[in-house]
Design a protein that fits this description.
This protein is α/β, with parallel strands linked by helices. The chain folds into 4 domains: 57 residues, Orthogonal Bundle (DNA polymerase, domain 1), CATH 1.10.150; 119 residues, Nucleic acid-binding proteins (OB fold (Dihydrolipoamide Acetyltransferase, E2P)), CATH 2.40.50; 183 residues, Rossmann fold; 157 residues, P-loop containing nucleotide triphosphate hydrolases (Rossmann fold, 3-Layer(aba) Sandwich). Helices cover 35% and strands 19% of the residues. The strands form 5 sheets. An 8-stranded mixed β-sheet has the order 12-11-13-10-14-17-9-18, with helices on both faces. Strands 19-24-23-20-22-21 form a 6-stranded parallel β-sheet, sandwiched between helices. α19 links the parallel β23 and β24. α6 crosses α7 and α19 packs antiparallel against α21. Bound molecules: adenosine-5'-diphosphate and magnesium ion. Adenosine-5'-diphosphate (ADP) binds next to α10.
Length: 721
């Protein structure tokens, strides 16, 4: 007997190879498969008499096969299966390419259901490569609307589409889910009944059934609403509980060191923007209190968040306290380490770097020549850094290392959406208990450090408040003055050579170039530009005279770091990379961002890439390439030329969503919402009301054990505020 925890290999007809493919999608159990939701639907809900087919429209046709044969097309070097299907109103020509087995699966006289688009065939109509299904029930004249009698799941009604890996078909996935969909009834519904009632939501079991096999659009709507509510509700509930928790704990106050802070600001080669000044002031005021700050610093790419964080961290250091800055990648951590060391060169502050492969301390020196090693000339360990540095910069390694800070007063998390709730919590708990004179002689108390989260997620204030609860927010809504607008263009293939020529020209003038590709190597998926291939081509044939390097997530940390530091030093002129450069990297000398396969990225993510250039006085450019010549794709990319705001761009992406699409392109930099969208204001409000209500009744959640369990599981999994 199957149950939710059964392995997918226990399902009928799942062999080792299918199981392996499903595993790639994260599907290992029956439960995983039930929660593997389709992202869009083909609408074949209208069974159309062949005589009434319309050119270009999707339709479902049911008829009898009159002729079926395989042909070889010598010109196109492929097999063509040709069929004639009749339903009594008309005969339709159907062809499939390179699927000769179809002529074995189907035979003349069979009744089939076909789903596809009617195409032009020398003035008549035909279907090419439609989805097909043999029908066992007797042929009946076409009925209007529903199609009761025919038991088809691939070609009739609203047919779900899933995100798949190579060589796994929609047909297979639908077939498997059909077999286990009955088990949806045994999925426990963790949403308290009163919430469900008040928000007018269907049960989880029903939502799962309907999202996979909807009868009509209102089924999809109802299912989507329930599943989207779940996501928003968990975010809200989390925000409420964090707030309650914080209000009960104490923080080490960080006194504002006015003279030194002023000295630092005056030492900068530029003036702070008004927004930076205001944000820094809001933060310093919070830090001076003994209530833990929990503030989100939000500013579009290039708005200068790092500097604001440095001002805050410097104040902690000047008070003899410690500050830590956690970044999502080694590249970024190292870059912050060098930036901060450079900026604070004139201050007596020790700065440490802790990543998995690197432990370093710099002592107000720049460039960092004098790497301190410990007396026995052994390698520096995390413990040495934690004991001697007052500003510590690092990656996840900061939490993984088995060390505690003596005097941690401020934790800064850069690109906060890259970290899970648990990781942030773990960072805040990295401090040792301190003597607490307030609580009495000999009593030690663990104080909660102030938390500053930074994000380039460009959510407007009102929305951020609705989404994250009443959190404190500082916004950098102003760019440094010297910035020029980045010239952005979707470049047609015909102009590729010209673009290369332009790159060569810019490099001659001393500038540098990023080339972004969607994949690492071609075996990942066919037809999409990969880093390996593109690097080879550019290095060997296009720019043999120029220094190039490649960068991707599968390289060793030390290699990545070497490439990045050479690029930063200007020794490498062109960096061919995957999306690893998307976050945070700051190479002011780079002036061209060239993106291959641009249609594969969300607009907000493309905006993030673009933010890697235009970071200094040089005029910068963003060139978008795609081999998808669909006009809609081009239009979508052109939005980037017009808009310079990640939030607007995400909104536009939503508009480009096709009909029947349940969720859109993944938008890096936005909370990980699958079903819900940032623009579901009404649903967000509803989720918030319900979360506030529950938290007020019992914020231990003891009354709702299923909900409590779900929240814990979600916190471990989802990377969110
Ligand atoms: P982000 O907000 O994307 O993290 P950064 O903090 O990396 O941006 O800053 C982007 C670049 O702008 C850096 O090179 C930084 O030195 C520079 N910068 C920061 N503030 C200013 C300013 N007020 N005027 C000019 N340049 C600035
Ligand atoms: Mg940054």
């Amino acid at each position: 007997m199957l149950n939710l925890e059964s392995s997918i290999t226990d399902i009928n007809r799942v062999g080792a190879s299918t199981a392996k493919k499903l595993k790639k999608l994260g599907v290992e159990t029956v439960r995983d498969l039930l929660f593997y939701f389709p992202f869009r639907y083909d609408d074949f809900s209208r069974l159309t008499p062949i005589a009434e087919l319309q050119l270009g429209a999707s339709a479902n046709v049911v008829g009898q096969i009159e002729l079926l044969q395989n042909k070889r097309s010598p010109r196109r070097r492929m097999n063509i299966t040709e069929a004639l299907v009749t339903d009594g109103t008309e005969t339709l020509k159907v062809i499939w390419f390179n699927q000769p087995f179809i002529a074995r699966v189907l035979k003349v006289g069979d009744r089939v259901s076909l789903a596809g688009k009617a195409e032009d065939d020398y003035g008549g109509l035909m279907m090419s490569s439609p989805a097909y299904e043999k029908i066992l029930t007797p042929l009946r004249p076409p009925l209007k609307g529903g199609l009761g009698g025919y038991n088809a799941i691939h070609t009739q009604g609203l047919v779900p589409n899933y995100h798949l890996t190579a060589s796994l078909t929609h047909k297979q996935v639908r077939f498997l889910i059909k077999q286990i969909i009955g088990l949806a009834a045994s999925v426990p519904d963790w949403l308290p009944p009163e919430v469900k009632r008040e928000a007018k939501l269907i049960s989880l079991a029903e939502a799962i059934k309907k999202i996979h096999f909807p009868k009509n659009n209102s089924d999809i709507q109802g299912a989507r609403e329930r599943l989207a509510f779940d996501e928003l509700f968990l975010i809200q509930l989390q925000a409420q509980l964090v707030k309650k928790n914080l209000s009960a704990s104490r923080a080490p106050a960080i006194e504002f060191q006015e003279t030194e802070t002023k000295k630092f600001v005056d030492s900068l080669p530029f003036k702070l923007t008004g927004a930076q000044r205001k944000a820094a002031w809001e933060i310093l005021q919070d830090l001076a209190k003994d209530k833990p700050m929990s503030r989100l610093l939000e500013g579009d790419v290039g708005s200068g968040k790092t500097l604001v964080a440095v001002i805050a961290m410097l104040n902690a250091a000047l008070n003899g306290q410690q500050a830590v800055l956690m970044a999502p990648t080694e590249i970024l951590a190292r870059q912050h380490f060098e930036t901060v060391s450079r900026l604070l060169a004139g201050f007596d502050v020790k700065i440490g770097l802790v990543t998995r492969s690197c432990k370093e301390i710099s002592n107000n020196q720049y460039p960092i020549t004098d790497k301190i090693t410990n007396p026995n000339d052994k390698k520096i360990k995390a413990i040495d850094i934690v004991e001697s540095a007052s500003i510590i910069i690092g990656t996840h390694a900061l939490i993984q290392e088995d060390v505690k800070f003596n005097n941690l007063a401020l934790a800064v998390v850069d690109e906060q959406h890259r970290f899970g709730v648990q990781q942030r919590k773990a960072l805040l708990e990295k401090t040792s208990p301190q003597p607490s004179p307030l609580k009495g002689e000999g009593v030690r108390e663990r104080l909660t450090p102030h938390l500053l989260s930074m994000t380039a997620t460009p959510i407007p204030r009102s929305l951020a408040l609705a989404l994250y609860g009443d959190l404190d927010l500082s916004i950098l809504n102003e760019m440094p003055k010297d910035r020029k607008k980045i010239i952005t263009a979707a470049v047609p293939e015909a102009k590729r050579e010209k673009a290369y020529e332009f790159m060569r020209e810019q490099i001659k003038q001393g500038r540098q170039v990023f080339v972004i590709c969607p994949l690492i190597d071609l075996s990942d998926k066919l037809g999409v530009k990969s880093v390996e291939d593109e690097f080879k081509k550019l290095d060997k044939t296009v720019f043999p005279e120029i220094a190039l390097a490649k960068l991707h997530g599968r390289m060793k940390a030390a290699e990545k770091e070497k490439v990045m530091s050479e690029f930063l030093a200007g020794e490498i002129k062109i960096l061919v990379s995957t999306s690893v450069v998307e976050v945070g990297v700051d190479v002011p000398n780079a002036s061209i961002m060239m993106i291959e396969g641009a249609d594969r990225f969300g607009l907000a993510q493309l905006h993030q890439f673009r933010g890697r250039v235009g970071r200094s006085v040089y005029q910068s450019y963003c060139f978008l390439f795609t081999d998808n010549d669909n006009e809609k794709v081009f239009k979508r990319l052109e939005a980037l030329a017009k808009y310079n705001n990640g939030f607007e761009l995400a909104k536009i992406d939503l508009k480009f969503r096709g009909p029947g699409e349940v969720y859109g392109l993944e938008q890096k930099g936005f909370p990980e919402l699958k079903m819900a969208s940032l623009f579901d204001y009404a649903l967000m409000k509803l989720a918030r009301e319900q979360a506030v209500k529950l938290a007020a009744i019992d914020w231990s959640l003891a009354s709702w054990p299923l909900l409590k369990e779900k929240l814990g599981e979600w916190e471990r999994r989802v990377h969110l505020e």
